[in-house]
Amino acid sequence: SKLTNLGHLEMTWRSRVHFHPLLVRILHKSRLRYYGKPEKKMDMPYQAYFEVADGSGMMSMVLWNSLCPEWYHSMKVGTVLLLAKYAIKTSYPFKTHPTPGDSQMKRFATIEISLNVRDPPTEISIIPEEMVKPEWGLPEVKYRFITRSELDDLPHNHSCDVIGLVTFVGRAERARKREHSEDFWLYRWAHAIDGTSDQPFILELFATSQPDVFERIHPMTYLVCTQMRVIQGLTENPSRTVYLTTSNESQIFITGWHKGQPYTKDAKVKSFIQWMKSQSEADQIKKTVIGGYYPFPRPPDSFLKY
């Protein structure tokens, strides 16, 4: 069928009601958001957004309501979609934006693609990777992997991806989203090493929309975390307080979930795997810890300093 592209959509969307189909690749995926309120009677008040791209650039795509339980788990980073009968709306100004792996990619920020169950009823097709043709010009998923030896020099709030061997994972903890609120964030601390430094990555992992992965993080698993944010220098001794926290677009993968993920082609991922092959599993197991309370950043060792 006749296709359009994101760049053409941005130029012509105001003058059209119906749009030609789109062929795009998912580059980023947000966590699933529940926006239900007791006074509003909605069947499926869910929303998730994705950053999708074709040869012309990248745009946000929003999945609404009952389409979320139907499609959210099938729409992975790297998945190619054929979209028909979608709507175009002006962008929501307050949403978070992931940092693209390809800094040269053009971003269309004024509008977003809206996928609804009606008005109009969107038609979504997933194209299997083996059927994707090079002449479609779809961009590859790119990452920003860092090693532990590079972390201390990165600025606060820098976005990056990491891979490491888990040496510690703490128990799940809860923090109130807002003071006096009934809603909580669920998170856990983890340490991961990659052989480039004596120090581990310290990771604050909030529960994303991947409960099956979040609950199964344990020592000796290969952990990949994407779209993490650097948190620098919370105390006078900055070298001890740098850690990484998840963002709205973070994805977490552990051993058993890596097969077929786009990051397996990344050079830093390959060099980590080579390093792991040179390690003795028995030696690493001796250094691992699980559970317990993990206060971070650590309080001073005396009350006078406190």
Description:
With 306 residues, the protein is mainly beta. The chain has two domains: 6-136, OB fold (Dihydrolipoamide Acetyltransferase, E2P); 148-303, Nucleic acid-binding proteins (OB fold (Dihydrolipoamide Acetyltransferase, E2P), Beta Barrel), CATH 2.40.50. It has helices at 6-12, 67-71, 148-151, 211-214, 267-277, 281-286; strands spanning 22-29, 33-34, 46-54, 57-64, 80-84, 87-90, 107-115, 123-127, 159-169, 173-176, 184-193, 201-206, 222-231, 243-253, 289-290. The strands form two sheets. Strands 1, 2, 3, 4, 5, 6, 7 and 8 form an eight-stranded mixed β-sheet that branches. Strands 9-11-12-14-13 form a five-stranded mixed barrel. The longest helix has 11 residues, at 267-277. It is globular and about 65 Å long. The termini are far apart. The mean pLDDT is 92.
Number of domains: 2
Number of strands: 15
CATH level-3 fold name of the largest domain: OB fold (Dihydrolipoamide Acetyltransferase, E2P)
* Overall shape: globular
Gap from first CA to last CA: 68 Å
State which percent range the strand residues make up: 25-35%
Unreliable runs, pLDDT <50, ≥5 residues? none
Order of helices and strands: HEEEEHEEEEHEEEEHEEHHE
Main sheet: strands, sense, barrel: 8 strands, mixed
CATH superfamily of the largest domain: Nucleic acid-binding proteins
Mean pLDDT: 92
Supply Rg: 21 Å
What structural category do the secondary elements indicate? Answer: mainly beta
The CATH class of the largest domain, by name, is Mainly Beta
**Residues in helices, as a percent range:** 10-25%
CATH architecture of the largest domain: Beta Barrel
Protein name: RADX protein
GO molecular function: single-stranded DNA binding
